[in-house]
Amino acid sequence: MAILTCSGCGARNRVDERAETLTPVCGRCGALLEAGAGVPVVVTDATFPTVVLGAGAVPVLVDCWAPWCGPCQALAPTLDRLAAEAGGRYLVAKLDIDQNPRTAQQFGIQSIPTLLIFKNGALVDRLVGAQPKQSIQARLAMHVG
Prior knowledge:
Elements: E1 2-5, E2 12-15, H1 19-22, E3 41-43, H2 48-53, E4 60-65, H3 70-85, E5 91-96, H4 101-106, E6 114-119, E7 122-128, H5 133-141
Parallel strand pairs: 3-5, 4-5
Antiparallel strand pairs: 1-2, 4-6, 6-7
């Protein structure tokens, strides 16, 4: 069992080995803990409210994708690079719409890939279709800070 310190409130949190696949959050303030930093976080219908809507002022870029989607597969390395470069300024998450139809329907996903940007629990931006890294970075920059 590891102990991670929250960068938001300083609370020490016990996190077991499943943390890499479950995306741990701080027990005190709900902020994302840095266990999986540098890689996109997988979110589901069940974890979406905590991970994405509960991220607070940290912008969250959610990739709505499906395994059979060619453009989604082509965009994946770009999102991996963005996650690696995030440095805590934003979070990159992936939502498989086939496995998580409730969240996809809630946000009106009609075409994939669709990138959603959330901040303070609200949807603040949407990009539809495969986008170059510079375009995604520019849209994220509008919401960072």
